[in-house]
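To: structure desk
From: M.T.
Subject: fold request, one chain
Message: Could you run this one when you get a chance? Sequence is below, nothing fancy, just the single chain.
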Amino acid sequence: MVAAPGTAHLAAAQHTAWMLVNLLARAVGIVTIVRVTCPPLVPVAGRVIPLASRDIPLCDALVAGGQAIGAVPVEAADHPQAGDTVIITGGPHPDAAQWPGARYAAGHGWWGGISNQPLLAGDPASNLPFGPYVAAALAAAEVYLRARLPASVYGASAQAVGWDCWTQALTLSPASCAPATIPDVDMSGIALAGAGAVGTVWIHAIWATPGVCGSVLIADADKAGVTNSNLNRCPLFGAASLGKPKAAEAARICHDATVMWDPRKARFEDLGTTPGILVSAVDTNRAREALQDRYPPRILSASTRDLRAETLRAGPPGQGACLRCYNPPEPLPADDDLRAQVRAGGAPAIRALAEQADVSEATVRRWLDQPGCDEVGDRLLATLRSDAPEPPPRFAAGFTSVMAGTMLAAETIKLLLGQPLSPHIPGANNVTFQFLKPAAATNTARILARDPACPACPPTGAATLRWQHRYEQARFPVHTGLTAPPSAGLTSSEPASRTSY
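Reply: Done. Structure tokens follow.
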């Protein structure tokens, strides 16, 4: 990673450089070493690198932040070495001719791109992180796909690719209508469900965004806390976070944000609260169903699947897709299997279940011998299911999570500003971006109608009507354009099941 000397002092260039180092330093098996070439004595431009001090020069902070991850080695270098993949961040570099095949990554405001030619910084300068994170994700994806795919299959390096989160569209330059800064935005009344990869990208982006304030709830119930697998794709966590509760650890790392974090080690749906905006970054369909069952006024969601990132503005109720739409819940363990599991565990398993469910061991034994559908039996089954292991995680790459979480953070701010998901597609509520062919026309915003088979949002259902009332009364304006019934223009194309990590 080479920081362009002419722009290294700008927040946008630093955001791009840091997120790129962050992603490459987690790419175990793809990257062998990350070398950081950066002008000396450049100060860090505020909240840029959460894993390093702001009181040291940018080059030292980039290296320290990368080393704190504890995965791929990261070191400072005066210049790239022969055979290195060179990515120049922020703008032109006077020595670029010495590095054949170098790529340029740059971000401005809401837009980020990568090219084989220098990308001009926007004017006026912007210190928003969204575009820079997009540029870093695009660059990291190229490194990954070059390593994993034959050149004949992956040819993105021959072209320029850019994405704008203000318009949620492919474009080679920032949208002229997008603001370079945002006014003071109060995020009070927002809750984030899930502090995994997508959720921590959202937290990272909000932490780095000037002009936000208020209090934000973070709910995550992962009993294992931060694990080694999280270090591959959660951009906030380093080796020092291992074993710690995700929500509390994310809040600790980002303690100096201009928002106040309220971390909870719990499932959001168990907290009994209904926020003005629920931001979903959970990782199973069953969890999405449980969140939808709270019917908060506004719901935003982001997820990943393989090399695809997706973001959804749920609703409008009864028209647009909800969290449950196209996401059938994973099957639960059968009752008989759960009882067999307890029997196989013997006295220790019976004792543990009795303590968790707050019943006597004799009651548990009676239930094992004479299963029934009484209240105690239901409680014991619910307790066992709450401890059941989550489905094994699907393949996920860090750059995909960064793209999903960044789009999610951008949509959160845009919703608070009363802006549509896309100014070019009235009523758009869904956007997807896949990295295998980043310039493909399928990377676009669209209208995603509700799943006709979804039991959570039938147009005339009591819960949907309650959701609709809350939706219309919410203090967050949104210009969806979706006022007609589904038969009057909404599409019902079905996406692949959304899974976030």
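Reply (cont.): The CA atoms of residues 111 and 131 lie 4 Å apart. Let me know if you need anything else for the meeting.
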